[in-house]
Amino acid sequence: MYRLGSRGRLLGSAPRDTFDWVLFLVSASLAVVGVVNLYSATSVVRASLSDLYIQQVYWLVMGGILATLVAAIDYRHYERLGYVVYGGGLVLLLLVFVLGKDIRGSSRWISIGSFSLQPSEFMKLFMIVALAKYLHDDPKNEGRTLKDLVIPAGIAMVPMLLVLRQPDLGTALILGLIFASIAAMMRVRWSSLAWLGVGGGILVPLAWSYVLKDYQKQRIYSFLNPDTNIQGANWHEHHARVAIGAGRVFGEGFMKGTQNQFLFLPEQYSDFPFAVFAQDWGFAGCLLLVALYGFLTLWAVRVAATARDRFGAVVSIGVGALIFWHAFFNLGMVTGLLPIVGVTLPLFSYGGSSVMTVMMGIGLLMNVSMRRFAVSVRTSGLSFLESS
Amino acid sequence: MSDRLVQRSDASEFRKRYQWLALFVMLAFVLVVVRLFELQIVEGADYTSQAHENIVRRVPLPTTRGVIRDAQGKVLASSRPAHNVTVVPWRVLLSAVNGKRPDSLADALDTWPKIADVLRLNPDERTRFQIRLKEACAGASWDDSPEERRKSACYRPLLIREDLSRDIVAELKEHDEELPGVDVALLAVRFYPYKTLGAHMLGYVAEIDQEQMQRVRPANFDQLSADEKQKLNPLGYEGGDYIGATGIEHAWESTLRGTRGWEKRVVDARGRYRTGPDAKRLLDEPAKQDPLPGRDLRLSIDVELMTAIEKAMRPHPAGAAVVVDVRTGRILALYSKPDFDPNDLSGGAGRGRVRETFEKLSTDPLRPMLDKTMTGSFQPGSTFKPFSALAALENKILDPEDRERCDGYLTFGKRVFHCAHVHGKVNMHDAISESCNVYFFKLAEAVGMDRIAKIASDFGLGQKTGLGINPEAPGRVPTRGWYAMRYRGQFRIGFTLNTAIGQGDSLVTPLQLALAYAALANGGTVYSPQIVRAIETSDGTVATDFPPRVQHKVHISPENLARVTDALAAVVSDPRGTAYPARDPGLEVSGKTGTAQTGYLAGKNEDSKHAAYFAQNHAWFAAFSPSRAPEIAVVVFLEHGGSGPTQAVPVAMQIIREHARIESTRGPHVAPPPLLPNKPAPAIVQDAGTIDTPAPPDDPGKEDDDAEAP
């Protein structure tokens, strides 16, 4: 655990002393377990896909380098460049429409050489930075009005709409939830909150009619009637649930989960790696994994609480929200708590953009954590998370 | 630089919220854990069994249908392997599928032309199948979902060729790698090595039809309990199974069929079987149930004799012949003509051939599908006379030595009844040997119809014999009662006269007549006919042996019987006997000829040749041999064959001669081969309770409640 100096005196600012070992170890554990699980998940697929886990290691290494860079540079530089970064992200999102590769009915990727980049993934971080920058520059201690929310909402809405156009409902949803999580930090007037509720009540049906595609609606129908049409629309969800259930207490063992071994789990390396994990390792393994995600998220809240300024706090909350919502939606979807939305499980799902985004996010957390010493732990209000 | 960077901003706005966020996060993950607990602990057993069901499939193991052998062990019906070839349309005709191909198949060529070459399809078949493949894929696209793929014919195997030659199978195997989507399925096809010989008796097998399927596997079959399933479908039929359709194949279906086994196999989501230790580990015990092969049947039929009959019958277009062992009631030959090739009907040569053959058979005026030994019944003509004579003798109505005068006709009221010749004064002996109708008209007048009917029925005429391998015609021995029901008007003496000579409304089947003559030959014992001598296991052990069964003994005085059989001997041996001209001096034969008028009325527009044929009389010869110590009874029936003495007798003589020759080549101690003693049936028989349960129709145990011990 990280160390406070004796008598509360803070140690010097050398990275060796300020390095957040908890964050590092939790993240590293997740990454290792993720790769091991990916090895099990892809052990059954065709040769061209069976070395995906090696690819994933490359992405993790690259992500690690990026995270180190991100963590090394004082985050106040990012604060300064917040809008620039955000603007760059928007440009990339627009480029998708021009250069995007169409894969299964939506264009989310741009190719750079042999790499495929998914700008919407990185956009999550850029949006967080931009929101942090705005809130950093606009401190308010009394309740905010609707007018005060227009700009932050706009910062979130623009990329959301662009992503929805791809269409990529999952990413748009995550962007919205990250914004909502950050917004939950702000003091908003009760009357404004009421208006927001009314607005949401109007927008949701409109979105259902005009924004959601038929296949997306179908997923929601399937979610509401899970046991119908097992051969068709509910195939994924049904077999994922069977895999999880069949894991029972201790699982069937590494690479022994039959649902994956016998190809009943499509998308087992992208959206459904948890189903593979659950049948291999059972409830015991799942409990450990959920604990890791929970701990990582709570640690992000702690980093926010101990951040030395508003920018750091908002960035930490944003990154925490990113990890939390990804994990919660993926687990919820795979266990049948939530409808199927293509949301990846951080560090578990295969994917370069996703891995690098999460790694850079962790780099940001590390950055804030390492530079937190201006604020006393006591004042954070998060005393239950304190380490001695 | 550091000045620019130090822009502290107060974070107190957020301070109160961290706890709530942390609480929310914890609650969310607790929710996930609760859900995992529900799935993995509470419902874990259910999902485990579901996962198990997903991958473990019971694959049926085929059984082999029993072999049918003749008395000498020659195979009459067995199963042979056949290779059918199917192709998966999209795989062999990629160009037929719409849309943009996936990259992996971008450069793949259609393999169909090559397949057509290997299968040696002619240009006509080639285009026909190509059209069918294209039609199958008309709506298919590369973007089809798995569900659409399951529905589309484009992804389902299409049968192209049945019963491929070995060469083509070998060639296909050789090109296996280059020809994806082609599958050669091995299946068993029923095979009748003697082709048309004995077709009616053996029958054929046919694919189970919709109606039968409905009966054994109704729509709700899968929901029924194991007991109900067993009751409804004891033999475990499934769609596409072959089932005995007629003849012995049908009647002994439950014995011949065997019981399918099963084996648990591990199968993945794409339906591919997995092997190896990893897969085996997942199979629960018992992992396999071996199939029980069907039981073999040993018939009393002698196929060599059948061959001889076929040869003897060659000049005649239609008819039947029956040879019975008079000492046992076992049937040595059962022949009906015209016939068909059961190989064509049993699917071995393809479905097309089955359809074609049926069409041809059902329109043939000579009715080749009809088993004329038992399903058809005909007027017996003069072959009936011995029974009329016995009726007179047994009832002591007349003195057999009294002579009656035959002028070639007899007038009763306004009607004139004819005889074949002017026989002069004949006693009973002469009347039988020379076949005098007038004598029998006078006899009938004195004896009366019902007394004649009583004796004839005692000998089994006009009654089903209970052989049961094909539907039996009961035949008819008319009585006064029958006429009273049938005709409103006055009973006429003419009915009686016609009955006495086997005309009018009398009908018998050749099988009945053969058994009746066997009873004449053996002193009055009517046997239940047997065609299946024993049930054997595939290694030749006798599982069930069927001893001869006496149906009943006719109560008749030996002197009267001797008087009639003497007359029957004279039919052949006396120079005035009707069969004398066609006799074989080397054979001792007793019998009676018959020439039955059919009363055929030609239709208005009927082809004259056709009409001429159908206007001809039926020719009969019913006999037994040797006369003094009879062994066999033979009935030859030539449908519209003309005259009994000139047509039927030579055929019968040839059959009897061949029988004697065959017997002599084998020697008395060789035939029939000694049956092995009854061993306790192997254990598997008890398991398969279904094999023995439905009693075969000609199981003698069921028929004769009042049987006397032989």
Shape of chain B: elongated
**Under the CATH scheme, which architecture of the domain at 303-359 and 371-600 and 607-692 in chain B would be assigned?**
3-Layer(aba) Sandwich
Mean pLDDT across all amino acids of chain B: 85
Number of strands of chain B: 24
Low-confidence stretches of chain A: 1-12, 374-388
Oligomer: heterodimer
Domain unit count of chain A? 1
How helix-rich are the residues of chain B, as a percent range? 25-40%
How much beta of chain A, percentage-wise? under 5%
Order of helices and strands of chain A: HHHHHEEEHHHHHHHHHH
Structural write-up:
The complex is a heterodimer of chains A (388) and B (710). Chain A is mostly helical. Chain A has helices spanning 15-18, 21-41, 47-50, 52-72, 75-99, 119-137, 146-164, 169-183, 190-210, 214-224, 235-247, 258-261, 273-306, 310-335, 352-370, and strands at residues 101-103, 106-112, 115-117. In chain A, a hairpin with a 2-residue loop joins strand 1 and strand 2. In chain A, helix 6 (119-137) runs parallel beside helix 8 (169-183), helix 6 runs parallel beside helix 15 and helix 11 (235-247) crosses helix 13. The radius of gyration of chain A is 21 Å and the shape is globular. Chain B is α+β, with helices and mostly antiparallel strands. Chain B contains 29 helices and 24 strands. Chain B has a domain at 303-359 and 371-600 and 607-692: Beta-lactamase (3-Layer(aba) Sandwich), CATH 3.40.710.
Outline the secondary-structure elements:
The complex is a heterodimer of chains A (388) and B (710).
Chain A (H helix, E strand, L loop, with lengths): L14 H4 L2 H21 L5 H4 L1 H21 L2 H25 L1 E3 L2 E7 L2 E3 L1 H19 L8 H19 L4 H15 L6 H21 L3 H11 L10 H13 L10 H4 L11 H34 L3 H26 L16 H19 L18
Antiparallel strand pairs in A: 1-2, 2-3
Chain B lengths: L1 H4 L12 H25 L1 H12 E6 L6 E2 L5 E13 L1 H4 L19 H7 L4 H14 L9 H6 L6 E4 L4 H9 L7 E10 L7 H4 L2 E3 L2 H7 L9 H7 L9 E3 L2 H5 L1 H5 L3 E7 L5 E2 L2 H4 L7 E2 L6 E4 L3 H10 L6 E7 L5 E7 L4 H4 L5 H13 L21 H10 L9 E3 L2 E4 L2 E4 L5 E3 L1 H6 L3 H11 L1 H10 L21 H7 L6 H8 L9 H13 L2 E4 L3 E5 L5 E4 L3 E5 L4 H16 L16 E7 L11 H8 L2 E8 L6 E7 L5 H23 L16 H5 L1 H4 L18
Parallel strand pairs in B: 2-11
Antiparallel strand pairs in B: 1-8, 2-3, 3-4, 3-5, 6-7, 8-9, 8-10, 11-19, 12-13, 12-24, 14-17, 15-16, 18-21, 19-20, 22-23, 23-24
Helix pairs in contact in B: 15-27, 18-20, 18-21, 18-25, 20-23
